[in-house]
Amino acid sequence: MYALYAWGxxxxxxxxxxxxEWLDPAVLSGExxxxxxxxxxxxxGPLLVDGxxxxxxxxxxxxxxxxxxxxxxxxxxxRVAAIRVLTDGTREDALRITAGIEEENDFSVDESPAExxxxxxxxxVTTWEDEHGQWDMVLLKLPD
Length: 144
Prior knowledge:
By secondary structure, the chain is an alpha+beta fold. The protein is built from three helices and seven strands; from the N terminus they run βααβββαβββ. The protein has one domain. A seven-stranded antiparallel beta sheet has the order 3-2-4-1-7-6-5.
């Protein structure tokens, strides 16, 4: 199984990483997809987000959204660290999404990355870096 993650200065600078909608129990459990019209890389619309697989930074620890379901984070320092883009879990579907992104944007691509900031969650297969510093992405092969 594969997972495509996106993060970057764009979401941090405009505060999209701390909105209360990220902590909606239905988003964290996967009952509902997270959609925010401002969360875009392509002109075709917002990124569709896999809430349970999105990685949150909670008190300096990286945690998947599914582990936050039911937790009270009222007095906790948290933010979205890496958005898991909604795919069907195949490499092909993730690459379908990134093909459009590569076509419309200036990204440098590394198809043999030595490492990624998300290596704890899986093996980096490909990384993308926006040449304007707004977005980074990684395709991870998840452990079995």
